[in-house]
Amino acid sequence: MMNKSIRKSEMFNEINKFIIDLPTPPNINYWWNMGSITGLFFMSQFITGFFLSMHYISDINKSFFMVVSIENNIWEGFLLRNLHSMGASFMFIFIYLHIFRSLFYGSFIMNYKVWSSGVILLLLTMMTAFLGYVLPWGQMSYWAATVITNMISAIPILGKPVVIWIWGGFNVGDPTLNRFFSLHFILPFILLVLMMVHLILLHLNGSNNPLGIPSSAFKIPFHQTFSYKDIFGFMLPLFLFFVLIFLCPDLFTDVVNFIEANPLSTPPHIMPEWYFLFAYGILRSVPNKLGGVIALFMSIMIMYILLMSSKNLLIYNSLRKFIANLIASSFILLSYIGSQIVEPPFIVMGQMLSTIYFLLFFIMASM
Questions:
Q1: What is the pLDDT of residues 80-127, one digit of tens each?
Q2: 240 & 296 share domain
Q3: Domain residues for 235?
Q4: Fewest Cβ atoms nearer than 10 Å: which of 174, 178, 188, 228?
Q5: Do 197 and 61 share a structural domain?
Q6: Catalytic (active-site) positions
Q7: Is there a single domain that holds both residue 282 and residue 238?
Q8: How far is residue 37 from each of residues 21, 80, 128, 217, 228, measured CA to CA in Å?
Q9: Is the pLDDT of residue 240 over 90?
Q10: Quick one: 150 and 289 in the same domain?
Q11: Name one GO cellular component term (predicted).
């Protein structure tokens, strides 16, 4: 009995150190709430997705109407579906704000392991979101799946066999939808584990602060100051979240996706969800198919180049903040370019902005 109580006591002490008594810089501002808000919306996605999976059927003849049935015939199905679809957009909003804060305040410099795990999390989250986007089996879902998966065929030797394996045949169909549903269900569990690893790595070294100066000599416990601050920080995002769900739930949904998937009718303008548009804008800027695939992948992996930057937060502090603002501006403009039809002047603008986007990361890494 004593051994059990000692183990429980040791476990409680570790949890206490990890959450309650965690040493935290006293001057961190609301930009540091972006990570916790992202975690809040991830848990919302995790829970609503679990309940939606109980009613969803991965069948190309039934999936579209099953989603309609969930909204109309399942108790509170409308709310459940919109919590999940709107939650994806909100989660990505705060993911991108979280990344911007890391770039602006140089958080990536303080702990490279946290930054590395964060990039992996972003890549897997985007993959999970793409798989989920296909599941309603609307017109845009089908053609987005066809276009994006077909890009893999540009990879020499292995590309075409991999595409056929993903499709489960020679075109996007039932086997593809089954694979996407299975992966979309499994990946959040992997993401949950990786998020815990991300948090552990962060708490081992601690957070930086807005001033960029060492704060090891003066830190305060996370609870109560910052736990209450986090709870207060949830209020505005959740208020906006529920206002949009009840007043304009389809704000971020493409109208073409309200039409059932039709392989014989190609939409005039194929466009993914808004949170993929910056990468899609970079993809379209490269005329070569293989080059476009590489550029698409590198739009995320370029963040690893920041591991080469100086470990001194005070060096080029103002310049780094200016470059972070430029990266954010190029991200927004690339997202706009990705939403437009492929025609002049958007082609040249996309190529220029893609070059600037990558160049800015190289400049920041050289500091």
A1: 999 999 999 999 999 999 999 999 988 888 788 899 999 999 999 999
A2: no
A3: 28-210+220-267
A4: 228
A5: yes
A6: 203, 207, 229-230, 273
A7: no
A8: 20, 19, 19, 28, 13
A9: yes
A10: no
A11: mitochondrial inner membrane
